[in-house]
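Q: What does the assembly look like in three dimensions?
Context provided by user:
Components: two
Sequences:
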Amino acid sequence: MTRNERTYILPPEPALVERVPQGDGVILEVQIEKASLRKQFMRLLPRRSIGVQGIRIHCKDLEDFLAAEERSFGHEMDVSFNTRLDIAEILAHSAELENDMYRFVLPLQDAHDSLVIKLLGSLGIGILLDLRDPLFNWREAGELIADNILNLAPRGLLEPIASLLHGLEKKDYFLGEIYHEDPRRYAWVDEQGRMALSEKDRGAGNWISARLGDGIREEDLGDQTIFHPHDLLRRRHRCAFCEGFFLCRGYLDAYGQEPFCQGFFNALFDAVCIRGTKNGKTGHETHAHR
Amino acid sequence: MPEICLSTITKNPQEPHLGQTISTWLFDWHDLIYVLDFFKANEAREVYLSGETAELHPDFSKIVNYVRQRGFLPCIIVSGLTLPWLQQLVVRSSLMENVRFICRLTDSSPDLFANEAFNLPRGLAENLILEVLIIREYFDPTPFLQLIRRQGLKQELILNLVPCNDELTGPGLKPELYGSLARRFADSLDAFMDSGIFPVWRRGIPLCAFTDSDLGRVCKAGMNHKWRQGQDFVVYPDLSFSPFGVPSLRKRLSLLEMNSFADISQSIGKLAQGFLFRRCSVCSLRLRKLCDEGVYLNWAADLSPGKPL
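A: Here is the predicted structure of the complete assembly.
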């Protein structure tokens, strides 16, 4: 991996963006409060041609997001909310939500969340599940996998399930990629230009020695990273025997999700097998087992 | 046409006619998503929504909204008794856009809707179609045609023959009276023509009940009288379904065992073989696939609860 393929996730501060090494990419993290999104973003665009690869938007609620005067900048956007989405609110605004350029990052903690995800998916809206959430409901996730893989009608893309399925064919896929937490490719930057190799590390103040603009050396990737796949193999950790290890490489163990996540990967492989043997005609069978 | 019954009620089996409900079963959201997926995969365009409870479903407005967002035209079926509830609902919400309402009335019972003092909001009336359940052989469409004109309803009248036989105590039309009804219908063609309102049969009169002369009048009037039915079935909250909502067939067919509308047709067709009128079983019109009405009417009439297949 060469240095100029790194992507920095940082607040939309012009001073920070100026320090991003030439040729590297950025993902901007924007907190929007009532229509301020465009203003925040537009401050950056005239400064220099930055390689924006995406935008992470944090909103208070759906209304806050919809109130933004501009919701599309031609970049892929991950939108998360501080409050849980309400079914009536989703249905009332579903026509406004149709947009290929963004997806909702949603929690999956109970049956209500599962229903919201299914509803949004059935309306064609893309969703990213946060598998790292300590309260993530793995039982509901198993059901969502079956629903998503074996459903009868087209759905919006449900990540990371869609990526994992793609990864089954690619072989070099890594789950952390979808959360921008591959230490070889991403760096998380705070307002002062300090860098961490994951969102979790940044939250915990677990900084690497280099600062934004310095570049990241190989030795920075050592003990600072949140997961250690080779160590898991060496220690014959349970992850090493999981069906999903070549996709996850112990990433979810670093978030304390093992052993629950193993059932998730089992469900994923089972659903793929059923789809393969029944030629995608068994949505009703899966539904019957709810 | 696929219909979703959003709520079912169970009455006391000892006293089914007293109206006392002992349990209510509502359609679950997960099941609704599944059923609409099924309809979508089979390219249905309209979805009928009904229910056995007074307010059909507590999430009714959300469900209608969702059905609409999935790309279907929701057709809401109400009775004369639930119409005031619907009237209040449409005033409160934006339910009137891209939606059709069907109000089922019997041909005999006077109800609130037929009252001259009762006026529907304009937006509701424009999207409302009357469906008449015919339980008498001397059916007269004139009051309904007047009602459509007076209230400014959609220029269409759905006719639905409710069959009955000697064993059944409920209202309905006995097979020997289908001929009389066919004659009444042919006689009423002028009233339809004069009003410009079009009759559409949902469950119609068997072809054999018409005399050649009456049939000629119907054809000459250009009435679109179809004697062969399409996919007309009702799905219940337990995901069972039955053709035309025949109650006694409900638990015998499940949507979870079907992959397509073709499967449903096939299953209904197989069941139909066991429920033919004697004369239907040898009827050349049925064998030549010109008429299936007798089969459907016999189902609805002949299957009293608990009667073995």
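Follow-up: The first strand of chain B starts at residue 2 and ends at 5.
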